[in-house]
Amino acid sequence: MKKRLLISLSVLALSGCSSLPHVSAPPPVAVPDAQALQAERARVRQVLAQLEWGFSGRVAVSNGRDGGSGRLDWAQAGNGFSARLSAPVTRQGWELSMDFASGQARLEGLQGGTRQGSDARALVQQSTGWDLPIASLGDWVRGVLASDASALQRDGAGRPLQARQDDWEVHFSQWYDAEGTRPALPRRIDAVNGQARVRLLVDQWTGWEP
């Protein structure tokens, strides 16, 4: 069954970007030892082995002039992912679906009808004006970077604190410690690409038994 990425915003022409709650400062940049790097590689393997997972959180976006915020609920399986980004009050917005097998994205809920394309990021940007790193967000939210990521900085546990990937500068500002079968996972992520900014604060993870 085709999985969907579902994103809802109250209005496409948003104004006055709402900020997320303040969180504590990130851990300091460090040079992790060999044991810490080995533990981080094990963490990444554990993360990637979990094919069905999800999270609930809050997201804020801006493009330099306009911005908005909402609640994001994301669920991912092997053949796709589904998410819902809804405004705090109205719960109205638009829907974007992405199927990994076909490589096709589908954007619904906008004036003018449904739009489709093979590049979800371009589809959203052309239709709404929002630049969102959709292709990478599912990895970043789990603290996973591509092999070509540059300017990588880590904390003492070997976890990423900052990196550049696909023209985005990504900051992992706060982490959840490992608990039960769940590995350490990011709590707050800030991504910047020129005037485009995305801030994500994860409130709860699903898919790992406590």
Automatic annotation (TrEMBL):
<keyword id="KW-0813">Transport</keyword>
<dbReference type="InterPro" id="IPR004565">
    <property type="entry name" value="OM_lipoprot_LolB"/>
</dbReference>
<dbReference type="GO" id="GO:0044874">
    <property type="term" value="P:lipoprotein localization to outer membrane"/>
</dbReference>
<comment type="similarity">
    <text>Belongs to the LolB family.</text>
</comment>
<keyword id="KW-0732">Signal</keyword>
<keyword id="KW-0472">Membrane</keyword>
<keyword id="KW-0998">Cell outer membrane</keyword>
<feature type="signal peptide">
    <location>
        <begin position="1"/>
        <end position="24"/>
    </location>
</feature>
<dbReference type="GO" id="GO:0009279">
    <property type="term" value="C:cell outer membrane"/>
</dbReference>
<comment type="function">
    <text>Plays a critical role in the incorporation of lipoproteins in the outer membrane after they are released by the LolA protein.</text>
</comment>
<comment type="subunit">
    <text>Monomer.</text>
</comment>
<keyword id="KW-0143">Chaperone</keyword>
<protein>
    <recommendedName>
        <fullName>Outer-membrane lipoprotein LolB</fullName>
    </recommendedName>
</protein>
<keyword id="KW-0653">Protein transport</keyword>
<keyword id="KW-0564">Palmitate</keyword>
<dbReference type="GO" id="GO:0015031">
    <property type="term" value="P:protein transport"/>
</dbReference>
<dbReference type="InterPro" id="IPR029046">
    <property type="entry name" value="LolA/LolB/LppX"/>
</dbReference>
<dbReference type="Pfam" id="PF03550">
    <property type="entry name" value="LolB"/>
</dbReference>
<keyword id="KW-0449">Lipoprotein</keyword>
